[in-house]
Amino acid sequence: MHNLKSWFLLREDITYLNFGSFGACPKPVFKKYQQFQLELEQEPVLFIASNGLKYLAHSREALSNYLNCFKDDIVYVTNPSYAVNAVAKSFNLKEGDEILTTDLEYGACDKTWSYYCKKAGATYVRQHISLPLQSKEQFVEEFFKGLSSKTKLIFLSHITSSTALRQPVKEICTIAKQKGILTFVDGAHAPGQIPVDLLALNADMYTGACHKWMMTPKGSSFLYVRKELQHLIDPLVISWGYHALFPSASQFLDYHQSNGTRDYSAFLTIPAAIDFMKEHEWEKVAGNCRKLVQENADAFCKLLETVPLAPVNDNFILQLLSAEIKTNEPEKLHDYFFEKYKIQIPVMRHGNKVYLRYSINAFNSQQDLDKLFAAICDIKNTTGFIE
């Protein structure tokens, strides 16, 4: 595939196979970021109190068009964990209530829901999903075994982190809607990797990261809440937006956007990131990346003496691939990949298992994966890190 490495700021000496964790920003988007920061420092009052707010409105409009939702139904947050905390803290949990999720979710979100459920005397139900997956139907059937009359909300990832699996969220949201159960989707890995149509998905709430696959600077994410529910979501920080002296047409925006002094330059680069993707025909780029991921799946799994976690197709496997790896020292193994081979790749604990995950974007090539595979062989032959 056509390699776009020259457009990125990544170090030349690093084989970067960990785009999924924190993304990477293209040069023109980063330049726009620095321009906003410079404007902020040249006239802070004008930027924070006036011009910056106009830029935010323009940015939200561009993002809402990209996600197919109404611009006043999204607010910017620094990361999806912030959004999950805002929702979990606001959610009116009572003793005996249940939040239904899977046992494949992101650890920080698990911790958030566990904290607030414990505080309320509610239960965070982590429904077991059998791996490897066989089909969407199997997933949906297994997931809804965790449903009960006490279930108040379904929370799940669009694309999981440690296992790198696309979950059938549209199917689950449709069934939940029929049953009158609220849904909240963690889409940290979705926007920029797959098309996200929020109105078609019909989730009640959705959070996504722009600093991952949309390639904006770090600390740039959003929370979408269906208009009828927005009054339920309290801000994590009470500030000038509460009983605003000059309120906007949206209390949701006032509460969550006006929460004290901060540099929101990263949020303002989202239109530039969308333009960058359009200019480089990102659907084709993403398709080529998925092809590279999928074509190498069998070789990767054979090296690790395991099997793919799901059928290797677009239903489940996109620009990330995880495989179980047998190691007792995942943190040391991660450091060894980096220090010995200059490969940046996550080695992640999840429950009692460990997963090695590579992610592919426009700057990667087959040579990067060949280098990874050679390093795995070398580690297996010369160290005790991989059993």
Key terms:
387 residues; alpha/beta; Aspartate Aminotransferase, domain 1; Aspartate Aminotransferase, domain 2; 2 domains; 7-stranded mixed sheet; 3-stranded antiparallel sheet; 15 helices; 12 strands; 15% strand
The total count of strands amounts to: 12
Total count of domains: 2
- Strand order, largest beta sheet: 2-8-7-6-5-3-4
State the shape.
Answer: globular
- Based on helices, strands and strand pairing, what is the structural class? alpha/beta
Known CATH architecture of the largest domain: 3-Layer(aba) Sandwich
Query: How much strand content do the residues show?
Result: 5-15%
Helix content: 40-55%
CATH superfamily of the largest domain: Type I PLP-dependent aspartate aminotransferase-like (Major domain)
CATH fold descriptor of the largest domain: Aspartate Aminotransferase, domain 2
Mean pLDDT: 96
Number of DSSP helical runs: 15
Unreliable residue stretches: none
What is the helix/strand order?
Answer: EHHHEHEHEHEHEHEEHHHHHEHEEEH
Report the span from N to C terminus. Answer: 34 Å
* Rg over C-alpha atoms, rounded to the nearest angstrom: 21 Å
Tell me about this structure:
The chain is 42% helix and 15% strand. With 387 residues, it is an alpha/beta fold. The chain has two domains: 125 residues, Aspartate Aminotransferase, domain 1, CATH 3.90.1150.10; 245 residues, Aspartate Aminotransferase, domain 2 (3-Layer(aba) Sandwich), CATH 3.40.640.10. The protein has a seven-stranded mixed beta sheet, with helices on both faces. Strand 3, helix 5 and strand 4 form a beta-alpha-beta unit. Helix 2 runs antiparallel to helix 3 and helix 4 runs parallel beside helix 5. The longest helix has 24 residues.
